[in-house]
Specification:
This protein is an all-alpha fold. It contains ten helices and no strands. Helix 1 crosses helix 2, helix 1 runs parallel beside helix 6 and helix 6 crosses helix 7.
């Protein structure tokens, strides 16, 4: 039993090292330029081990870019503070260095699998949170919210626009929060 437990721990450690290396590579080089061989070299293992654990580059990407946004339950937040709470949570995720977000945002523009993963996160994580607090046009509301969150993240964390990188997180939360609040609860025009 001890030998089996040791092998399992060693396997878990190898898998963790592969995922860390993959997250760094995908984040820095994007999906297309990242190779299994480079990830294996970074993880100090043979490329066959990457294939053993993840099956393919697509499988490795899916595992490396898999994460839960852990969005707050907005139903327990005061109605007038929901936009601010959502903005703070999202910026905290980025400031905390959740690698999957950066990987997805960089890759989604050029890779169908990454774009599909972003759409899945939207549908499974963002839409239900919005629908729970505002049943009127939740799909439109969630789409507008996602456009703001992804746009800010792209400009601040991927492009590094000085106009946004120099702004404090508290200023971003206050202003982004106002927009998110409007998208959450104001009437949707033209609907």
């Amino acid at each position: 039993m001890t030998g089996q437990r040791t092998r399992r721990r060693k396997g878990d450690d190898t898998k963790r090292r592969i995922l860390e290396a993959a997250r760094c590579r995908f984040s820095e080089e994007g999906y297309e330029r990242t190779t299994i061989r480079a990830v294996a070299t970074d993880a100090s293992i043979d490329p066959s081990m990457v294939m053993r654990y993840f099956g393919s580059k697509e499988g490795l990407f899916a595992a490396a870019a898999s994460f839960d946004l852990h969005l707050p339950d907005l139903a327990v937040v005061a109605r007038t503070k929901r936009g601010e709470r959502l903005a703070r949570h999202y910026l905290d995720l980025w400031e905390g260095g959740v690698g999957g977000l950066h990987i997805l945002l960089r890759a989604a523009a050029t890779n169908d699998a990454a774009a599909a993963r972003v759409r899945d996160i939207f549908e499974c994580q963002v839409l239900p949170v919005v629908a729970a607090v505002e049943p009127d046009a939740p799909l439109t509301r969630a789409g507008l919210i996602a456009s703001q969150l992804l746009g800010l993240a792209y400009c601040r964390y991927v492009l590094g626009l000085p106009a946004l990188t120099r702004v404090s997180q508290s200023v971003l939360v206050a202003n982004l929060g106002r927009t998110l609040q409007r998208y959450l609860h104001d009437p949707i025009r033209g609907a």
